[in-house]
Amino acid sequence: VKELVENSLDADSTHIEVQVTGGGLRLLSVTDDGIGIHPRDLALAATRFATSKLCSFDDLKSIRTFGFRGEALASASMVGRLSISSKQRNQNDMNGYSTSCAYKQSYRDSHPISSQPLPAAGKPGTVVRVEDLFYNIPSRRRAFIGSKKEKEEYNRILDVAQKYAIHQAGRGVSFVCRKSGGKGAGAMGGSNDLNTLSIPSLKNLSERRKSLRKKEDHAKGKNEDETGMDEDWATRKERDQAMKEVIGHVYGSNVAKELLTLECGEGDIEAVSIEALKFLAYGSDGMSDSDDDDDDDDDDEEEHLPAGQHLL
Predict the structure, then answer these.
(1) Are 120 and 102 in contact (CB under 8 A)?
(2) Which of 34, 212, 217, 265 could in theory staple to 13 by disulfide, Cβ–Cβ 3.0 to 4.6 A?
């Protein structure tokens, strides 16, 4: 799930939806509104070590993606019934493929089942579905059968989705994670345990990013020079507010109200001392009287933030 979500983020998505049935055994689906996959590239999508994230050897010097090992889809096709439906957002150079529909390809053991992808209904973006997980490894499948195990696996999936929802809120990416209802793999309904679509600050960022993305796609379609979206499309305050509201959605408003913001760049901080955390928690005047005591009990208490304080 983690790698499928990261593929969606690398595809410049603004909305990602994770759907789970039977703890992921019957169905695991990740849907996004990203750039999509060209129909001719679907044949290679589940090939081991294949990636579209590197175009030349020099790309290794400036990695801008979550990963490019090309193993998630290949592994899924070996232990489950994998299918990918995709429609490109910017439909240039279609070479005989229709621009009015998506295209779907199914895979077994890293290879496409059919020689050509089939036309399918779909919106711009990509849908990755893994059904009947471990159907060909009965001993492994039995280890995950049962309502308790299904609940545990779903909670792990939900935890992954929640963490990415928080981390990507400042980029205007909304997340939905839900259990699908019914017994069939394609059954709809069920509960949305994570849904950040309607959070006001995140919605504003998402709409703004979609508008800028549309302009970029239009420029590419006309072969105009386009420098791409820079980090100035949203202010730091707007990004922090979106993240804070998503944290409130996941962990509750009381936690969100008590968050403290730390500003740092990559590599700026290797370790944060207990004294620094106490300063953030208490303020410059708020060092407690016990700071001068040498009792072991006091030392133990100093290793933790006081109750009710959280770091963002």
Answers:
(1) yes
(2) 34
Q: Which two tokens stand for residue 107?
A: 């895979």
Q: Provide the token pair at 164.
A: 């990415």
In this predicted structure, the answer to whether residue 238 has a pLDDT above a threshold of 80 is yes
The region that residue 133 occupies, defined by phi over 0 for left and psi between -120 and 50 for alpha, beta otherwise, is beta
Burial class (CB in 10 A: 0-12, 13-18, 19+), 275: exposed
End-to-end CA distance of the chain: 25
Q: Which residue type, as a one-letter code, is found at position 101?
A: C
3-state secondary structure of 172: coil
Q: Is the pTM of this model over 0.85?
A: no
Per-residue pLDDT tens digits for 173-200: 999 999 986 443 334 445 678 999 999 9
Residue 124 · residue 36 · CB < 8 Å: yes
* DSSP result, 58-108: GGGGS--SS-----HHHHHHHHSEEEEEEE-SS----TT--SSSEEEEEEE
Please answer whether residues 181 and 188 qualify as being in contact, where contact means their C-beta atoms are separated by less than 8 angstroms: yes
Residue 25 near residue 134, CB atoms below 8 Å: yes
Helix axes 2-10, 147-167, angle to 10 degrees: 30
Tell me the C-alpha distance between 195 and 162, whole Å.
Answer: 9
- Read off the amino acid at residue 194: L
Which among 170, 15, 49, 38 has a CA at the least distance from the CA of 117? 38
**Tokens standing for 251?**
């962990």
